[in-house]
Amino acid sequence: MLKYIGKSIYINTIKDIYLNNEKPENHNIYVADKSRGIVKIWNDGIWQSKNMIVIDQIIDNIVKHFNLSIEEIKKDNEKYEKLKERISNKINYIQLCDMEYLDDLEEDPLDNKDRIQRCKDFRDLVFEEIKTLLHDNKQIVKDSHKKHKINIKA
Length: 154
What we know:
Low-confidence stretches: none
Strand order of the largest sheet: 1-2-3
Oligomer: single chain
Order of helices and strands: HEEEHHHHH
């Protein structure tokens, strides 16, 4: 997490999890056709078509994971003091995709209008980048299934 900034936090996390050549068992999702709004998920030995909302769920899981990681770092005051500056910039980008944070902002929309729009725009940008990533790298996932014939679980 500390290596990346902005949307690359999300893109590189997706690469590390779902497109990692060393982990073919995680090759369980791809976007076959961006315009149709369908994600293919490997589940119980077959490819199932799901709505693109799966990408939103992946983003939410990344946000949750990084929020937990940041909380763990904050528990170690010495470590946190060393990393505070690097982490504070990351927290901003995690918040921009955090739906709970957006809900909090929307409780007083007049004072937070610009930040609300920034959150929505950034989340849309991350969504589109992940969709493109999973589309452009679908062959990695499909080749894993052909090559390894392994039971990859979603």
